[in-house]
Each structure stands twice: as structure tokens, then as C-alpha cells.
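User: Structure with phenylalanine, C-alpha cells only please.
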Amino acid sequence: MHDLDATLQRIAAAPDPAALDAERVAALGKSGWVTALLKTLGQMSPDERQVKGPEIQGQRARIADAIEQRKAELDAAELERKLATERLDLTLPAADTPMGSVHPVSQVMDELAEIFADLGFAVAEGPEIESDWYNFTALNMPETHPARAMHDTFYVAPRDGVEGTFVLRTHTSPVQIRAMQQLGAPLRVIAPGRVYRSDSDATHTPMFHQVEGLVVDKGITMAHLKWTLETFLKAFFERDDIAIRLRPSYFPFTEPSAEVDVGWSMENGRRVVGGSEGWMEVLGSGMVQPRVLAAAGLDPDEWQGFAFGTGIDRLAMLKYGMNDLRQFFDGDLRWLKHYGFSALAVPTLSAGVGA
Ligand code: PHE
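Assistant:
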């Protein structure tokens, strides 16, 4: 004989969901005792059924309610347990966790983006496998142009079904064309990224990084170029005594063109940027060649622009004092630990971009 009170007590005391389910099966399951009682109703006389029916149904309901209530209690206890044991203290220091560091090239790219964002420049991008047209032709270097030979270009092997000649971009200047096509004028962008030339020694690697700058607007002159570069170099090297010198030069995509030297001085036996004991070349620049504006779909009678380009790796070496470019790409963890930056030290103008 099954006792309702004993069943209800066991349900209330069920220690876990499995025990609770066992109680459910024993009472309400296919061969459970309440189910068996329900089956007896069929053989009863109508009078008897009228008395027994509600009684048995009442038992069934009380057991079902008790199961539901116990289930809710067990669920709540389980949630409490999880909240207590699976707690994550976000304020704990991460000192025990091995941490990577930000590569100086990435750091300098972040610094450049920060400095130029403050001057109203957006960041533009282009592909590293670039068409011959973007890398050369649109930049006023037609097929026979001698400057093409100076670039030590890596050519991409032709592929069936792919028309045209492709190269690993030899500079970031093709992004000038892409930016003008995509954004039109007026425009202010920088374009940092990887470039490739077949060259390798202590100061050259086959892959290196450049940043391109481009401003297109009305009434743009060399004065805007000079001010922009001076302002950039002061912010980047975090010194006010930055002197620059523009030397006439030649690039097919700028006219006139100027190479930009920055003054250096000796500090603790090391050559540092600032002062003017000597000069070193840091940038190529000039007014955008009208033919380049036209190739990108802009009317050169309406728009003028200036452009500049420089090596990011070189900027990093000058600012942070490395002397062998090849080590940048060796992946030596000791070098990265020494020269790398904390992932949390995000460069900002107010904190000093060299944070
Ligand atoms: N693309 C040139 C180089 O790689 C640099 C440059 C960029 C010069 C923009 C002028 C204007 O040497």
C-alpha cells in the first residue's frame, strides 16, 4: 500500500534531479502506483467512481505539484552553486598569464593613425597583390618608364584566365589612386601597409612597411605639405626642436617633388632626431602630378593635392633605437620582449604617442 504522505515527503527531500525523477516514475510513471489506482476507476460502479475519482485525481495533482515545487528548488540551488563557483574576478591582475607584446611596426602604425586622425586624416587600404596599372601606370609610370626598373619589382606569375600583369606592390602609392576613386575629393588619408622589393641587407628586407599620405582639396600648396610634415614629425618624435629641409627631387607621381630631410643631433653617443647637427632623409613627397589626379578620375583644373611616403620600419628604428632591420622580421621572442609594447599602452596624443 502506497502512502501519499510518505511520497510527498520523499519528493520534498529529493537531493537531486535524478532522485526526484525516480519519485515521479514510481508514482506517476506508466507502472507508478497512482497510475495503477487511476486504472482501477474503470472497473468501479458509477457511485463508487464518484467518490474515488476525485480522491485519486487529487492525489495525482498534489504529487505533480510537489514535484514541480521541488524541481524549482533544485534548479534555484543549482544556479546559486554555479554563480558561487564559476565566478570570474575581472579585477584580478593578469600578471600570472603569459602576455604577448605589440610589435614596434604595429605600434608605430597605431601612432601614425592617432597623429593623423587628429589632423583629420582617415586610414585607407589597398591590396598587397596589386595590378601593374595601380602600382605604376596610373602613377604616371607608363610601361617604358625607367622608374619601373628602379623598383626591383616582384612580378606575380601569370595565371590562366586572369588578365593583366600583377605585382607585389612596390610602394603604398597605388592606394592614392584607390582612395581617390573610392572617396573622391576633397580627401585626407594615410595608407599604412606592407610593400615588397627584391632587396636584402641590414637596412633592406624584401618586405617592409610604408605609410602614404594624401591630401586633395582646392588651393593646396607646398606650404600645406611642409606644415603637415613638420607637425607630424614633431608629434611622432615628441620633440619641438624638429627641423626639416625640403630638397628638390624626382618622383613620377609628384610635380614638383621634394625629399624631406630631418635634422639630427648626438645624444649619449647616439644619433637622435631633433636639432640640426646633420640631416637625414626621411620622406618622399610632392604635389600630386595632374596626370595622377586625372587617372583617378579627378579634374586637375579643379583639384590640387600633396602626397608623401615614408618607411614605417625606418621611423620605428629612429624613434626606438634599433639598428638592424632584419631583426624586425626574425620573430625572435627575446627581441620582441625587449622592443615590444604592452597591448594595454594604446598610443594617444594626450598621453604621448610613444606611451
Ligand atoms: N612612393 C615613393 C617611394 O616608395 C614615396 C613617395 C610617396 C614619394 C608619395 C612622393 C609622394 O619611394
